[in-house]
Design goal:
mainly beta, seven-stranded antiparallel sheet, 7 strands
Amino acid sequence: MQFDTAVCATSALLVFEFHTKSGSWYLDDISVKRSDDSGDEIIKNGGFENRIFNFLWQYSYPPIPSLNALLSTQFCHSGKNCFSSRYFADDNHYLMQNFTIQSNTRYTIELYTFCKGEPDLFRAMISFE
């Protein structure tokens, strides 16, 4: 997936939304780079190998705000760890990261996702500031 930044944008928020009828989503190897390959990796801990969520990745499950995200060692694309969603009845949950971007620049997003169970919704969204 590619996106172009808005003229005045200096930061972006990448949001993943998850929902399953049963089972879990697994997310790994998230990458955001300039499309011309002249830049470094922008996303921090995109492979979840540092096992740190606070300040890098934010997890949100609105009905229970204090609930923490899960890391998994199963169904990962590479490395030892990946993000694992949870099955919560009819509620969606979210994984987010803010990052800095340059105006008038094209970026490429790559990721690996897998659903074990009955998938219902996986969505990636970007907002610009």
